[in-house]
Design brief:
By secondary structure, the protein is of the alpha/beta class. It has 14 helices and six strands.
Length: 360
């Protein structure tokens, strides 16, 4: 069995995709340094999180998905160095599920890695992420409760650092729980160097250029996507959400409009501030290993003025939606042109419009 296994459980929207992209692109290099990233692809860790969290849908999945956690454990059992398992959805696990996961990795010494950020930015980013997963909840109604279900990801259950640590610290001792607060003022690769150094990698030796920031939509664009989601009755599969809603529509067509940033309502801002203070106090009192500064987990006392989503007007929605239709029409034309060119062996004459020139 691996001597030591690091479980990176998120939190969601805390540079997890950035770190995972670097790791999966550098598996052989990591292995040469004695760190095993088990599995064939990143989705194996997602699927393993579903098994660990006992999601009801697992029983209906393909054998490869149902056996993901078993396959990861089998690889770790044959490894004599350090292992790394990383997916942010593990953060939603119950205390019992966390204990069972750790016990199934025995006799390895299990360490927990928790990347975290101040709750206001995390809250706003998570709402946008929920929209990219076909959610239709307005921001004013988002995050109004704490779910009891390990299947609920876009909820304070996984976003509140204190709540996550309360559950997972019942499975892993405090001295082996490592909290890495994101420093938004530091270079982007700062979190990589701290993360890699913690698990025993030579951080400077890795190429971090292949990973890119997960950019946000503006307030109008987010409202357009929320309304579009209400009409996407047939887009229920994970592939549909990931390829068409997230990548094609949100990341490639709405994000490039460079819209206005926004805040939630004042009472939600205050809730985020209180959660940040509670998390800092819990970490300080709990004896956890902090790799970075806990000050980065506090919501700033002074915030720049920003509008809230309910101030978006019907005219703004219509303007963005009609521009979006024009872009999508260009996409259809480009696709048809490429198909015709492939059929005739000619070079395509029309390129797909990717950006919004008037807004760059």
């Amino acid at each position: 069995m691996a001597d030591r296994v690091y479980l990176h459980i998120g939190l969601p929207k805390t540079a997890t995709t950035y770190l995972q992209t670097i790791c999966w692109a550098s598996r052989d290099q990591m292995r040469a340094e004695g760190v095993l990233l088990p599995g064939q692809e990143r989705r194996d860790h997602l699927w393993a999180s579903r098994v660990v969290r006992e999601e009801p849908s697992v029983a209906r999945k393909r054998p490869r998905e149902r056996t993901a956690w078993q396959r990861l454990r089998a690889e770790l059992a044959e490894w004599s160095g350090t292992g790394l398992v990383s997916h942010e959805f593990f953060a939603a696990a119950s205390a019992d599920q966390a204990r069972a996961m750790v016990e199934e990795l025995a006799p390895a010494e299990v360490h927990l890695v928790v990347t975290a950020r101040e709750p206001l930015g995390l809250f706003t980013a998570s709402w946008q992420e929920s929209l990219k997963n076909r959610n239709t909840t307005p921001l004013a109604e988002y995050g109004r409760d704490v779910s009891d279900s390990p299947s609920d990801i876009w909820n304070w259950r996984t976003l509140d650092l204190r709540l996550v640590l309360e559950r997972w610290s019942q499975a892993v001792p405090a001295e082996r729980i490592h909290v890495l607060p994101l420093d938004r003022s530091a270079p982007r690769d700062d979190i990589w160097h701290r993360f890699a150094g913690l698990i025993g990698l030579t951080s400077d030796a890795y190429d971090t250029s292949m990973s890119f920031p997960n950019e946000s939509m503006g307030v109008v664009e987010a409202e357009v996507l929320r309304r579009v989601n209400r009409n996407l009755d047939g887009f229920t599969k994970a592939f549909d959400k990931g390829v068409y809603i997230r990548s094609f529509l949100a990341d490639e067509r709405l994000v490039p409009r460079r819209g206005e940033p926004f805040w939630p309502r004042p009472d939600q801002v205050e809730d985020c501030r209180e959660r940040g203070e509670a998390a800092v106090a819990f970490v300080e009192q709990g004896g956890f290993d902090v790799v970075g500064s806990l000050e980065n987990l506090r919501v700033p006392a002074t915030l720049p003025p920003r509008r809230t989503p309910e101030t978006v007007t019907e005219a703004e929605v219509a303007d963005a939606a009609t521009e979006l239709v024009a872009v999508l029409l260009g996409d259809v034309r480009a696709l048809r042109t490429r198909q015709q060119a492939e059929a005739t062996g000619e070079e395509p004459k029309v390129s797909r419009r990717r950006w919004w020139p008037s807004r760059r």
